[in-house]
Amino acid sequence: MFLLSFLVTAVGLGVVVLVLRAIYYNLVSPINGIPGPLPAKYTDLWRLFDFYNGTQIETQRRLHERFGTATDFYSVNDAMQDGRRIQNVFSTRDKEFHAKYMRPIHNLFSLRGILSFEHLSDKTLLNLCQQLESRFVDGDNAGRTCDIADWIEFFCWDVDGEMTFGQDMGFLEAGKDEKGMIHTSEQCQRYFGIVGQMPWLDMWLGKNPRCSIMFPTFAQAAGYCVQRLLERQSSQRPKDILEDFMDHYIQAKTLNPGVVTDHEVIGYLILNVLAGADTTAIVTKVIVYNVLSNPAIYGRLRAELDAATLSYPATYEEVHGLKYLDAVMKEGMRIHPVLGNMLERIVPEGGLTLSDGRIIAPGVFVGMNPWLLHHNKDVYGQDAGAFRPERWLRHEFETQEAYEIRLKRMKDTDLTFGAGSRICVGKNFAQVELVKTVATLFHRYDMELVPGVKQWTPRWWWFTYVDHIRVRLRRRTSSGG
Fold first, then answer.
1. For the chain, which has fewer Cβ within 10 Å, the N-terminal or C-terminal residue?
2. Binding positions for heme (predicted)?
C-alpha cells in the first residue's frame, strides 16, 4: 500500500514539475510576441502528433493563413515565408562542422565532378529502358500496365549504387525491393522525422537497448556500405584509378589524415545512397505524373525533345540548355518539395528582424517549410497550386526587366536544395540525373496514364514520398536507339 501511495505521489509531483517548467519557459520565452495555438506554448507533443499523422504541411499552411507569415507553430520554432531572410538564416547552423568534413569531397559534387561519372549513369539508364521494354513493351508483354513509380525508385537506387560503388544494387534486375532496403530506408525516414520533433525521445526509444529492435535503423544500408568498402580495400585495384565515388572517398582519407577516417568514408557512402536515391526519385515521379496529366505540357515538352538531336540515353550536354525542359524541371521541384517539414536553423548573433519589425533573439530555432514557400501566391501567382512550367519562362508581353525581377523573386524563395552556405551538396548530382532521365523517358516512349485505377498516393513524412503512377508504354519510332 505504501509503495502504491509513493508511486502515485511521485507521478503526481513529476506532472506538477513538468507543468510548472512549461509555464516558466513560456513566461521567459524569447518568442512570446509570436502568435500561435495555445498548446504550442507549452509542449512539443502537439508537434509530434501532427507529424505522425502526416498533417504538418496543411497545419502550417492553415496557421500562416490565420496568423501571418511568422507564427509560433511549435514551442521553440518560428516559421517564415519571406525569401529575403532565407540566405541569413540558412547559412548559420553548424557551418564550421559542416565545412570541415565536406570540404575534402566538395569538388566531387561540382558539375564537372558529377559529369565525370556520367558514363556510369548512362549504364544504369540503359538498364532501366531494357527492363521496361522487356517487361512492358515487347512481345507478349506489350500493353501491360507498368507502375512507373516503382521503376523510377529502383533506377534511382541502382544509379546511386553504380556511381558510388561501381556496381548497381540489383533492384532493376530483380524488379522489386528484394531485400527490403528501400522499405527500411523509408521507415527510418519516418521514424527520425517523428522523434525529430522531440529529439530526446530517441534516447528512450531507438537508442534504448531494451527496445531498439522495435524501431527501424540504417544498419542495413550501413552494413552494405561497409561490405563494399572492405571489398574495395582488400582488392588489388591500383590506388591511382579513380572510377567512382568510393575511389575518391578513399583518396580523400589519404589526402586528409586526421579529418577523413574510415568512419567518415562510410558516412559519405551512406549519404550518397540514402540522401540521393529517394529525393531524386520523388522529383522524377512528380514530373512524370504531372506531365502525363497535362496534355498541352506533354505535347510541348515532346516537341522540344524531338527538335533536339538526342542520343540514347540523352546526355547532359544535349539537354541542359533546353528551355522548356528546364522549366518543367523547376516546376516539378517547386510544386512538390521533397521535404515535408521545416528546415530548422538557429538565429545567429544579432538576431533576426521580421518584415513587421519584430526581432527574434539569437539562439532561437527557426524554420521555413518549403511547401509554404513554394506555394506562396504572392510570389508564384494565384495558380501557385497548379503545375505550370510556363511560369518560369518570359511571358509574351513581359519586358526582359520585369521577367528578371519576377524570376529572381521565385528563385529567392526556392528551397529545393536549401539556401545560403548550406545548399545541398548533391544539387548537381540530382539535377544531372533528373534532366537526363526525364528527357530519355519522354523522348523514347509514348506514355499514358491508365484510367480507372488508383493513381498518385502521397505519404507526408520527412520525405514526401509518392506511389502509384500506372502507365502503358510504347516505344516511339522516332526515338533513336
1. N
2. 424
